[in-house]
Amino acid sequence: MTTDPRLLRRRAFLTAAGAAVAGAAALPVLLRAGGPDLPTDRPELPDLPEIPLTTDADGVRVARLVAESTGTGLAYNGTSPGPLLRVREGDTVRVEFTNTVDAPSSLHLHGLPLTPEVDQPLHHVSPGESHTQEFPVAEGCAGTHWYHPHAHGDVERQLLAGLAGPIVVEGPLDREVPALAAADDRLVMFTRAGRDVVANGVDQPRITARSGLTRLRLLNSTAGDHLLLGCLREDGSAVPTHLVTTDVGPVEHPREVEEVLLAPGERAEVLVETVEAGRLALVRLPYSVYGPGGETNEERTLAVVEVPAGHAPMPPPDRLLPVEELDPADAVRTRQVVFGATPDGSFTIDGRIFDMDRVDAEARLDTLEIWEVVNEHGSDHPFHLHSYPVQVLDRDGVPEPYRAWRDTVNVPAGSTVRLLVPFRHGAGRTVYHCHILNHEDLGMMGVLEVTG
Questions:
Q1: Quick one: 178 and 213 in the same domain?
Q2: What range defines the domain where residue 263 resides?
Q3: How are beta strands 92-99 and 347-349 bridged, if at all?
Q4: 292/413 same-domain check
Q5: Residues 400, 332: one domain?
Q6: Can you give the pLDDT at residue 125?
Q7: In terms of pTM, does the model score above 0.85?
C-alpha cells in the first residue's frame, strides 16, 4: 500500500463513512513531534437545550422550530447551534417549522430515512410561512443526525449564519447494551465560528469524563470542513477508541480506530476509554482535501477531556446489531455519477449544473442499484443522497471492510466509490449532491425521481 502524506502519524485510517482499513496494520507507526496542545481553564462543554415535545390526541410527538434573526446572525428557537431534537425509534413525530427570516428557507432533517414526500428538499418556505413534516421514526436509525436549511443557492450562507441543530434518535440498544447505557453520553456538534471550528458553540471546551467509558456523538455540521479527528494522550499517543455508529445506525461489531474522518454532514459515534486519570485532547489532525502533496490544515485541539481518578474500567460491547447484507448481483443497473466543475467556477454532476425542473436520474421503488461516484475534480467531495441510505461496496476497487448504513460518503479527488443503493421508504422526487454547501449552491446537485 502506498503511504499517502495524509496518513502520516497514524497506524489506522478510518472515515466515519467507512474508508478502507484493509492493510492498515502494514502502515508504519510514525512518531509525533510532541504531545497535543492542552489549553487550561476552558469552560465545560455545554449541553444544548432540548426542544420540548408535546403529545397530541393521536399520540404524535410534536416539535416546533422557528428560524429567526438574532440581529447578528440566524438561529433556531433563539439559539445557535439550534436546540436538540431527541426522539425514539417507533415514535411518530411532527415537526412544525416556521420561517421568520428575510429569505426563503427550509428544514432538512438530515439522516432520518424519510420519504421524498416528507423530506421535500426542493420546497422553499417563504418568509412568514410555515411547513409541517410528519413521519414515523424508523427502526434501526438510532444515532446522531441533524437539521439545517436546504434553500438552494442560499444554503451555505444560512448555515454559516447559525441555522443548524442536532437530532438524537434513541433505540433499544441505548438501554439494553450495558456499556452504552452506562457510558458518559456527550453530543459534540462542530460548527465554524470565524476561522475556528468550535464544539457546541464553544472554542476548545472541557469535557469532564463521568465514567470509564465516554460516548462521543461526533457531528460535522460545518459548511465545508473535513475533520480528521483523533483522541490523544498528553504524550501524543492515541487513546483506545471504538466506532459504534456511522451516519444512519450502529455497526454490527464495534471497531477499534485511532482516527475518524468526518466530511461535512457526516456523523460518527465513538466510545473512548476514560479510566486512566489525566488529560486527553480531541484533536483535528492535518488533512488535505487536494490529495497527496496538497496543502493541509494545521493540527488543533478542539476539546480537552479531563479524566478524574477512580473510574472503573468498562469494556466496550462486542456486538451491536446485525447490518443487512446487500447482494450486488441483485442490482438492476449500474449508473455513474461524476463530480466536476466548469471554468467559470460552477460545480457540476455529469457535466451539468443543477436545475430543479430537470430530472437527472430515474429509478424504480423496491429495486437495488450500484452507483459509481467518480470524482474528476481536484478536491474531495462528500456525496449525499436524500431519503435512501446506502452501503459502500468498494473504494477504488478495494472492498469495504465492513457493512454500515450511511447517507454521506466522502469521495477523494481522482477516486471512484461504488455504492449499493436500495430504493425503499417510498417513491417521489428527491436530490443527491455534494455536501460542501458552497459546491451545492453553485450547481453540484442532481434530481432523482423514484417511481412505484
A1: yes
A2: 174-307
A3: unpaired
A4: no
A5: yes
A6: 98
A7: yes
